[in-house]
Amino acid sequence: MNLRFVTRKVHAYLDYPVALALIALPFVLQLGSSNPMALWLSVATGVAAFILTVFTDHELGIIRVLPYPLHVAVDFVVGVVFVAAPFVLGFTGLDAWFYWANGAAVLTVIALSRSQGAEAAPVTA
């Protein structure tokens, strides 16, 4: 059984809602009590993620100029930054947990993603 079940298409369908959530949730959750950067880091990342998705060469890209592997590499960096941000920027409480949970989610999706060469390969048990 192949545990790498997140295809390029699935990843594409996750990108826009995740970007919008990164923009909206900090306001809904009232992040920023430990450091105002806890609010704005997520918003800026969400805007950048939305733009990255628009320009990525995958199923939902609108202006397909950036290769998908570059998109995944940027996602990996975002995951690492989100896990480290509470330590580096002094986030505590909900501010910290928001970043740790999102960083872990991003890194998990990447870990469960198929490599581009495996996209066409059939899944075998």
Main features:
4 helices, mainly alpha, disordered C terminus, single chain, globular, 125 residues
Helical residue percent? 55-70%
Q: Gap between N and C termini, in Å?
A: 4 Å
Tell me how many strands there are.
Answer: 0
Output mean pLDDT.
91
- Rounded to an integer in angstroms, the radius of gyration calculated over CA atoms is 15 Å
Principal-axes shape call: globular
> What is the string of helix and strand elements?
HHHH
If you had to describe this structure to a student in words, what would you say it looks like?
This protein has 125 residues and is an all-alpha fold. It has one domain. The chain is built from four helices and no strands. The termini are close together. Residues 118-125 have low confidence and may be disordered.
Question: What's this entry about, in short?
Answer:
With 125 residues, the chain is an all-alpha fold.
SSE layout and pairing:
Blueprint: H1 8-28, H2 37-55, H3 68-89, H4 93-111
